[in-house]
Design brief:
With about 325 residues, the protein is an alpha/beta fold. The protein has one domain (about 15-325): TIM Barrel (Alpha-Beta Barrel). It is about 30% helix and about 15% strand. The protein has helices at about 45-55, 75-85, 100-110, 125-130, 135-150, 170-180, 200-205, 205-215, 280-285, 290-300, 325, and strands spanning about 15, 60-65, 90-95, 115-120, 155-160, 185, 220, 230-235, 245, 260, 265-270, 275-280, 310-315, 315. Strands 7-8-9-6-5-4-3-2-1-10-11-12 form a twelve-stranded mixed sheet. Strands 13-14 form a two-stranded antiparallel ribbon. The radius of gyration is 19 Å and the shape is globular. The structure holds S-adenosylmethionine (SAM) and iron/sulfur cluster (SF4). S-adenosylmethionine (SAM) binds near residues 67, 97, 189 and 324.
Length: about 325
């Protein structure tokens, strides 16, 4: 069975959020003062595992566990173990802020996680604390080292670049990636949720500007490499490291979209830039154990996946969800 949307795109990649909570409050992701979901509204780990199993039966072969910060969820290692055993799942991965990697890296590796994304926007400890509001750079650096030591093969840094804050960190981050055998993707900020510290449009930094800065120091060649996600990759000749750009504004990647998301409260989101959703938790709680019913609802929902995202209309941001509630 395959999931295909109304534009002929095959859906093979699920991003599942396991919590909307986080130990950080990155300035582009959350407001300082956040209200999180009551626990009863969040999917249980068993429900999350059931959703993964259902999507794998529908042809999904890549699952990314995300959040909020997925590693703040209690007993999250049990979910990784269970999902890692699903037959025909090609890749199980996660996106993390890295702060709890030292604790979980070996659990992740033994569950079959081979590649991970770690968010890191700056190598300056003070700026790191400002951007994350609560974070300590060293715990992330230790986490990256622990992931390497545990045998996780490929680690990619994700950096959101804000023009007037951490643009000067682009080259240090590239150098860090080259030194430590990491890949890196630079992300254009998306207007998800109302943030207080900066205007999204003043801070907008286009991927092309970042690439130009890097090209002033290193030759960069485009590659055909894909990791079944939205990054477009470039490489420095003679180096293995991938340097990616996720450009939701400047280089719309919707035509090749193969992704859907499930939020921490069990809503199937068909597109990050639209509000269409289907309440999977309601179906599971009303009809426990009826996987075929869940599958039928998911298949039917594919018809609502929009052709492309629209973040702005008449200059006003459209989407009210914060990234932490949708899952990055
Ligand atoms: N807590 C984990 C982390 O930070 O990696 C996983 C969840 S986080 C929401 C996933 C990714 O989304 C991170 O790389 C983060 O930098 C990115 N992100 C958060 N808010 C964003 C926004 N408004 N625009 C673009 N990327 C954003
Ligand atoms: Fe937390 Fe990740 Fe959002 Fe930062 S980007 S506040 S680490 S969920």
């Amino acid at each position: 069975m395959k999931l295909t949307d109304g534009f002929g795109r095959n859906i093979t990649y699920l991003r599942l959020s396991v919590t909307d909570r986080c130990n950080y409050r990155c300035v582009y992701c959350m407001a300082e003062d956040m209200t999180f979901l009551p626990r009863a509204q969040v999917l249980s780990l068993e429900e999350s595992a059931e959703i993964c199993a259902t999507f794998v039966e529908l042809g999904v072969d890549k699952i990314r566990i995300t959040g909020g910060e997925p590693l703040v969820r209690r007993d999250i290692d049990a979910l990784f173990r269970q999902v890692g055993q699903l037959p025909s799942l090609r890749e199980l991965t996660l996106t993390t802020n890295g702060s709890y990697l030292a604790k979980y890296a070996s659990h992740l590796h033994s569950a079959g996680v081979k590649r991970i994304n770690v968010s890191l926007d700056t190598l300056d400890p003070e700026q790191f604390q400002e951007l994350t509001r609560f974070g300590q750079l060293q715990e992330v650096l230790d986490g990256i080292q622990a992931a390497r030591a545990a045998g996780i093969e490929r680690i990619k840094l994700n950096a959101v670049i804000l023009k007037n804050r951490n643009f000067s960190q682009v080259l240090p981050l590239v150098e860090f990636a080259l030194q430590h055998d990491l890949d890196i993707s630079f992300i254009e900020e998306m207007p998800l949720g109302q943030v207080s510290e900066h205007g999204r449009q003043e801070e907008f930094c286009a991927s092309a500007d970042i690439r130009e800065l890097i090209q002033g120091r290193y030759p960069l060649l485009p590659t055909a490499t894909t990791t079944a996600g939205p990054s477009r990759y470039w490489q420095i000749p003679g180096r293995d490291n991938l340097i990616g750009f996720i450009s939701p504004h400047s280089d719309n990647f919707c035509s090749s979209c193969n992704r859907i998301r499930v939020t921490a409260e069990g809503k199937l989101i068909l597109c990050l830039g639209n509000e269409h959703s289907l309440d999977l938790k309601a179906i599971m709680r009303r009809y426990p154990g009826e996987r075929e019913r869940l599958k039928a609802a998911i298949v039917a929902a594919m018809g609502n996946k929009p052709e492309k995202h629209h973040f702005y209309e008449d200059d006003a941001p459209q989407i009210v969800r914060f990234m932490n509630s949708t899952g990055g």
